[in-house]
Structure formats: C-alpha cells, structure tokens
Write a structure and sequence with these properties.
The protein is of the alpha+beta class. It contains 8 helices and 15 strands. This is Dyp-type peroxidase.
C-alpha cells in the first residue's frame, strides 16, 4: 500500500533543515543515482523530482510542470527550475552538513549540486519579520486532503525570498501590521487591513475553488542576507499558483504588500513520489531504478 513521505506533514517544521537542488550532468548515470537515492532516503528527508528530469527520462507525471515566471505590476517571481530537490530535516547543523555531503556524493556523477540553503526554525515557527508563519495551515484530515493525492504523492512549490529586514523594521508598527495583515504580538488578523495585506491576498477560502496548501516554510540566513524559504505542499500546483497570481496583482491589479519588503530569488515545482513498503515508489518514471518495483510498460 502506498503512503506519503512523512516529512511532508511533519509538524512543527524541523529545528534545522537543508534544501539541496540538483541539475542533471549525466543522464546515463541517472538510474544508478536513483537507486542510491532510494537506499538513502529516510523519514528525515523529502525528495522531489522536477519536470526537466522527468521529461529527460521519457516519463510524464500528471500535473507536473515547470515553475512559471510570474510577473505583475511591481512583482516578479523568477523561475529557477531544477531537476531534483532534497529537503533534509535535523536538529544539528553539523550532522546535516555531513548528510548533505553524503547525498551529493551518492548522486554524482548523474547529478550536480547547484544550490544548498540552510533553514532553521525561529521561535515556534515565525518568519524573521517576527510574525508567525503558516497560521492558516489546515490540520489533520484537512492537511492530508490539501497536500496529498490519492496515491500519497504531493506537489511542492518552493521559493527563496530575500527580506529587507532593515527596511521593514524602519516602518511604523501599524504599517508593518498592514503589510502582513496581522497584529504583531498577538497574531490577530486585522479586519481593517488594506486589500494589499498578505493575509487578504492569500486567504485560502476566498478563492474559487478554495486554494488550501500546507506550508512548511523556514527562515534562512547567509552572507549577511536573510529571508524565507517558502515551501508549500499541495495535491496539485493549482492552489499555490492561484495565490501567486493574486499576490502579483494579476487578478485585480492589487499587489501583495509583501513585495515591498521581500524579493523572490528562486522558484521551482517538484513532484514528491509516494512510498511503497517504506521506499520511494518510482515506478512512474520510465528509468526507475532496480528497487523491487516493475518498470512501466
């Protein structure tokens, strides 16, 4: 019986994490690398396949597509789609570093690491703006319905946002609240916030159909810069994409206030396969490794 990768719905977000993004260097070596990947993945990792890899393997996953570059009046969301994504969970930075190196070596020469970004939990799950993140996440059965397909697969949308923390801190408290749409301190949603407030741009129940996703975002900081590694899991990309288009002003011309103080640097979509007997079920890929599952005809 298939089941989902447990890290998708594990809450709260881990204390420490690493996002690893890989490009394909040698297609001929991919089957052996995927076999090594299956052997190495455990409950402290989530793996996602990008459309470039799936297409290169001659396979097709319903609903998988490249991340779209979405631009609106005052907002730009770049596409930096990669072939493979691995999200490692942990509690110790050193242990995560060594695990990252082990994954990189196991996947070579088929895959080349192009980005490695550390994430960490701030307080109980706050953004570095000091506002709580993921307040409206669905829970329990609603989270399963939002994040997973019937087979146990999921679709992950990932963006690295870089914050202007000094600029945000310099704003009056009320203006900061109005950008987010919540009152700092007690996290209460503000009914009188402007339509550009992030909470109003992304109110999941306000879309038709409703656009619920399960967010697993974490802060990052590197070389004097910092922000949020936004991560949302859905049973398709449609809910996330509807939110992104509205945030960018493509629905009604109103741009999310978040773009005033933060800039997306990356964007990628990844299919997260289900598990079968505790291992990644890769039978949907034409060049699935020899993991005990049959290749598709």
């Amino acid at each position: 019986m298939s089941q989902y990768q447990p890290g998708i719905l594990a809450a709260p977000v881990p204390l420490q994490a690493r996002h690893l993004f890989f490009a394909v260097d040698s297609l001929d070596a991919v089957p052996a690398a995927l076999d090594a990947l299956v052997q190495r993945v455990d409950s402290a990792a989530v793996v996602g396949f990008g459309e470039p890899l799936v297409t290169a393997l001659g396979a097709q996953i319903d609903g998988l597509r490249p991340f779209p570059a979405v631009s609106g009046p005052g907002a730009h969301n770049p596409s930096t789609q990669q072939a493979l994504w691995v999200w490692l969970h942990g509690v110790d930075r050193g242990e995560l570093l060594l695990r990252s190196r082990a994954f990189e070596k196991a996947l070579a020469p088929a895959f080349r690491l192009v980005q490695s970004t550390e994430g960490f939990r701030f307080k109980t799950g706050f953004d570095l703006t000091d506002y709580e993140d993921g307040t409206e996440n669905p829970h329990d059965d609603a989270a399963v319905e939002a994040a997973l397909t019937d087979s146990g697969a999921s679709f992950a949308a990932i963006q690295q946002w870089q914050h202007d923390l000094d600029g945000f801190a310099a704003l009056p408290a009320e203006e900061r609240d109005h950008i987010i749409g919540r009152r700092h301190g007690d996290n209460e949603e503000l009914d009188d916030a402007p339509e550009s407030a992030h909470t109003k741009r992304t109110a999941q129940e306000s879309f038709t159909p409703e656009a619920f996703v399960v967010r697993r975002s974490m802060p990052w900081a590197e070389n004097g810069q910092a922000g949020l590694m936004f991560l949302a899991f859905g049973h398709s990309f449609d809910a996330f994409e509807a939110q992104l288009r509205r945030m960018s002003g493509l629905e009604d011309g109103i741009v999310d206030g978040l773009y005033r103080i933060s800039t997306p640097l990356t964007g990628g979509y990844y299919w997260c396969p289900p598990l079968k007997d505790g291992r990644l079920a890769l039978n949907a890929l034409s060049l699935a490794p020899d993991t005990g599952s049959e290749r598709p005809a």
